[in-house]
User: Which sequence fits this backbone?
């Protein structure tokens, strides 16, 4: 049974449609990313799955139960962990106090010491929360999400506002939790985060899913066109080249091909024979960002 | 799946332990915030000391010719209850809501009723601490008699705690954001106190007494004052006043339930 099933989910506030016909599922043990621009419906979707918001229509199951069903809500909340988009930590407790408080809400929590070292706050364990830096408070926030030892963890933009090393640490933690079998549903608008963490990704745009797949196959990235670029060597005209190219500017040329090996073979053989260099040679597959921007362009308008 | 989903409401003794535990953490959070603690408890004591020292020995001709301090002690007991249960509760809840803390707790397995019970119990404990301190200051510092009728006194204080907590919950739902919480709540609170005869007893039949009779504060002060038995022959049980306080409490509860929000009001 999947950890999450969403079928034709729809949510509107009056005339405003926040989520329109969204369907996807998340397998147990999977790290699944919802990727999309602000306002695409990521947070609304995740909040419906947590049982915080009610849907307008559609079918939703979280760990096998309807998250809106009040009879099973308390049970569900013992098995999920949530980290909200906005930092929310109690200011007056120490790190250890607030983690101990929250651990007591769950039937089989992680040990507080384990959580403190998982999120790297060992040196701050007895510091008051309000004395922590923003990044440290974010780590504590994540700690509060995992202290209940959840089967399923919701992370709404977990690394927004973290510095690069903080992001790396968070990624490491998410990988570790996933390796231990925790299912993770995360939202993000960072492409590198999706590539680093997600087994599968769904791209939300304008309240709809516009693509689903693995990060490496999304939008046909793994097949499709490769772009080869270089500058013309001195004294060489376009007609001298062994393959057809088109000019970009100032002697810079580009080749688009689906058979990049063959083109590169011809090109490099030709250049080596003549003792030429191909200045600024680059070979690029479409980036996830290219795909994402193409998929979400509608939203921009 | 590890277990069959179970019904999520009250689950027996374990839940009561949960409430006690949560109340303990609410208390911890309150007393760990020195400014909040000093403001609530310290404020009422300082007020009482200042007013008692400056005017405590004057007598109130239209109030059985009692010493003013004999009026101030019950008055500030009422103030203490209202400060903890209305003022501090409302401001704390707005802060917690706007900081996203209520939303986060909502997503924990702690049941809503357990959280709210603990929050209310916690403000009542704070109020009770204030009441005891104020009675001690009145007794030791100014030689004021303790309430003659303890039963009536405790009933009045408890009715006030419950009703003003309900009004505190309601007030928190009316304040739009964190920055406005302190000013709005305090203005409402102090204007009501002023109109209701905390600083000086209202002359019966005066315009102020007339207008304050619609609000709960004056009635609460009267209900706390009655059990001190300072006017011979007057009943220690101020039923009519307690009823008005309770009606306001019920109205507060209705507003709180209707307007309650777990999420920040800010856009």
Assistant:
């Amino acid at each position: 049974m999947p950890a999450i099933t969403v079928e034709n989910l729809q949510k509107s506030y009056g005339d405003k449609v926040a989520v329109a016909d969204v369907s996807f599922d998340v397998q147990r043990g999977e790290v699944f990313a919802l990727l999309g621009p602000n306002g695409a419906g990521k947070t609304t979707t995740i909040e419906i799955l947590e049982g915080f918001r009610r849907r307008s229509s559609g079918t939703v199951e979280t760990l096998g139960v309807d998250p809106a069903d009040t009879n099973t809500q308390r049970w569900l909340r013992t098995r999920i962990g949530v980290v909200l988009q906005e930092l929310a930590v109690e200011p007056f407790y120490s790190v250890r106090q607030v983690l101990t408080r929250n651990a007591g809400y769950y039937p089989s929590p992680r040990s507080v010491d384990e959580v403190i070292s998982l999120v790297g706050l060992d040196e701050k364990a007895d510091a008051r929360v309000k004395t922590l830096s923003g990044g440290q408070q974010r780590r504590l926030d994540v700690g509060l999400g995992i202290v209940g030892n959840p089967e399923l963890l919701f992370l709404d933009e977990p690394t927004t506002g973290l510095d690069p090393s903080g992001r790396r640490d968070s990624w490491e933690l998410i990988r570790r939790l996933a390796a231990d079998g925790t299912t993770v549903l995360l939202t993000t608008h960072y492409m590198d985060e999706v590539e680093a963490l997600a087994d599968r990704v769904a791209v939300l745009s304008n309240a709809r899913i516009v693509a689903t797949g693995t990060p490496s196959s999304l939008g046909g990235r793994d097949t499709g066109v490769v772009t080869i670029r270089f500058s013309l060597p001195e004294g060489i005209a376009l007609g001298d080249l062994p393959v057809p190219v088109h000019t970009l500017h100032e002697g810079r040329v580009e080749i688009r091909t689906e058979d990049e090996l063959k083109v590169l073979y011809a090109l490099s053989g030709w250049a080596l024979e003549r003792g030429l260099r191909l200045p600024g040679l680059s070979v690029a597959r479409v980036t996830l960002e290219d795909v994402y921007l193409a998929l979400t362009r509608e939203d921009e308008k | 799946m590890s277990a069959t989903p179970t019904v999520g409401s009250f689950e027996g003794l374990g839940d009561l332990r949960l409430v006690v535990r949560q109340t303990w953490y609410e208390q911890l959070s309150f007393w760990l915030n020195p400014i909040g603690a000093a403001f609530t408890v310290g404020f009422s004591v300082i007020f009482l000391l200042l007013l008692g020292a400056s005017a405590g020995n004057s007598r109130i001709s239209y109030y059985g010719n009692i010493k003013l301090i004999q009026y101030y002690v019950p008055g500030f007991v009422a103030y203490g209850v209202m400060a903890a249960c209305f003022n501090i509760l409302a401001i704390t809840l707005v802060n917690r809501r706007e900081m996203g803390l209520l939303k986060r707790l909502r997503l924990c397995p702690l049941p809503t009723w357990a959280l709210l019970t603990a929050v209310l119990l916690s403000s009542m404990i704070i109020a009770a601490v204030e009441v005891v301190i104020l009675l001690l200051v009145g007794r030791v510092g100014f030689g004021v008699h303790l309430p003659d009728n303890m039963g009536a006194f405790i009933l009045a204080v408890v009715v006030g705690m419950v009703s003003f907590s309900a009004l505190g919950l309601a007030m928190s739902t009316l304040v739009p954001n964190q920055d406005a919480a302190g000013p709005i709540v305090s203005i409402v609170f102090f204007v009501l106190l002023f109109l209701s005869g905390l600083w000086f007893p209202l002359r019966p039949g005066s315009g102020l007494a007339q207008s304050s009779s619609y609000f709960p504060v004056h009635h609460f002060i009267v209900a706390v004052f009655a059990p001190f038995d300072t006017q011979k022959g007057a009943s220690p049980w101020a039923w009519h006043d307690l009823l008005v306080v309770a009606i306001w409490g019920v109205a507060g509860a209705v507003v709180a339930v209707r307007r309650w929000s777990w999420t920040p009001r800010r856009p």
